[in-house]
């Protein structure tokens, strides 16, 4: 894991990240704990694209479940909550 103390970032500015970012994401350490992550624009766009693809896959799967009749309908939210309470864990 690439990391840099927050104090170093305060002292040197964003230039402190330049060498590290070439090796991957950079964790900024504050109070001995990772607090922030600095990403390259390319890496950020990859993460956004992956999140969007995962979202679309979930929506497609849900629509397939509806088409295939693998859904339950409830009249009220209370009915749904009761069904969830009585449902056995998968």
Q: What do these coordinates show?
A:
The chain is an alpha+beta fold and 90 residues long. The protein has two domains: 2-38; 42-86, no CATH class. Helix content is 57%, strand content 17%. It has helices at residues 6-12, 15-21, 41-67, 77-86; strands spanning 2-5, 26-30, 33-38. A hairpin with a 2-residue loop joins strand 2 (26-30) and strand 3 (33-38).
Shape: elongated
Q: How many helices in DSSP terms?
A: 4
Q: Summarize model confidence as the mean pLDDT.
A: 94
Order of helices and strands: EHHEEHH
Rg, Cα atoms, Å: 22 Å
* Structural class designation: alpha+beta
Q: In this structure, how is the largest beta sheet organized? A: 3 strands, mixed
Order of adjacent strands in the largest pleated sheet: 1-2-3
Helical percent range? 55-70%
Kindly list the characteristics that best describe this protein.
alpha+beta; 3 strands; single chain; 90 residues; 3-stranded mixed sheet; 2 domains
Compact overview of the structure:
The chain is of the alpha+beta class.
Write the layout of secondary structure elements.
Layout: E1 2-5, H1 6-12, H2 15-21, E2 26-30, E3 33-38, H3 41-67, H4 77-86
Parallel strand pairs: 1-2
Antiparallel strand pairs: 2-3
